[in-house]
């Protein structure tokens, strides 16, 4: 049985605040969210009936910059979960050293049961309800579980009806609308870089290790492909429909083809079906949860056999499980570092869009005078969009710098990687908060 997500996240925050010796009033102020939004979203369904959904956006903190975080569509979305995820974003952006605060949103729904047009209507109604509380310099949504680049395109379009063309109001959007190359793969790629960095600390590498992955959506499938490319052997994998295993290693490119052709994971020909309850306790070197929160808890933690856990999902491990795993000597790489690749590349996307918009505006003014040079300058706008290699190289630099800073915190405070990451993030937010002050 998993702990309440908010209780678990706040417990980790409080431990970090004590380790840092934070003033108790500052601690309280950092914990309370800046704003919690709850909206009712009623849409006509394709069959003509009405359906009502509840949408949330929790804006946790903006001391370091505009609030930032994904939008989740999932039946288990609830206010505490969104609150916890928003808080995690605040510490995550600080650990990654990108100039953002933290937010998260979601709608309680089953996206797989809604048609494309129902999803579009729901996204548009949700955006109408929150449009005056988000914005390029206030709160910038992105995809999370159950949402994708198309969802961001609808949000961008709906928001722009109220505020004029605003491509930087969301990230993780399609390339044709100003999205960044590499954003789709970024979280999984960051997971791969983080795994490489952690294993190297222990004299190991991806190529000599066995992996078990839970979740085969955006994060899980990219992590699997990139780990496979680097010679990692993925011996078991699962999603909501079931789990499969193959001792010799699952052929990930063949599985991707099977999945892209519409096949279910459990029907993949060159692996055997296994009990999903066994997935997280399957024997392996590295376990990578890439789905829901709270999946590692006091009930299954004693049976975990992995030596390393890479938290690609948000808050997959309860604090109670953390204690059990620590006693067993399992090394856990925390979510606020391990899955930060997504928000890091979101930042690259946001900067590129803002830079190109600024350039276009200046160009309009200049072109009145320099009309002859207009075409030449227009070509240069392309220079603001980074190629994929540059995105990936920059991502690797941010990931390895964050890892070095986390290790330094672990050393100076004599704590584990989770507390190293939390103290790093909380300290940066606390410093920004104190510098800005509270004068009304
Ligand atoms: N997308 C991003 O950029 C980021 C995502 N994350 C986190 O990573 C995790 C995954 O997100 P993402 O990949 O985007 O989401 P997706 O919706 O793309 O994929 C989710 C995956 O989890 C599977 N899943 C859902 N429920 C269960 C379950 N009960 N047991 C096993 N598998 C399950 C889904 O299966 P099925 O497809 O069959 O439904 C799917 O394979 C989340 O915790 C998210 O917050 C963190 C940072 C950034
Ligand atoms: O890319 C982003 O802005 C946010 C990604 C996200 O929701 C997360 O890191 O959990």
UniProtKB/TrEMBL annotation:
Binding site for NAD(+): 187, 218
Annotated substrate binding sites: 68, 92, 346
Site (Important for catalysis): 144
Keyword Oxidoreductase attributed: yes
Species this chain originates from: Urochloa decumbens
Catalytic activity reported: L-glutamate + NADP(+) + H2O = 2-oxoglutarate + NH4(+) + NADPH + H(+); L-glutamate + NAD(+) + H2O = 2-oxoglutarate + NH4(+) + NADH + H(+)
Gene3D superfamilies from the UniProt entry: Leucine Dehydrogenase, chain A, domain 1, NAD(P)-binding Rossmann-like Domain
Name of the protein this chain belongs to: Glutamate dehydrogenase
Matching PROSITE patterns: GLFV_DEHYDROGENASE (PS00074)
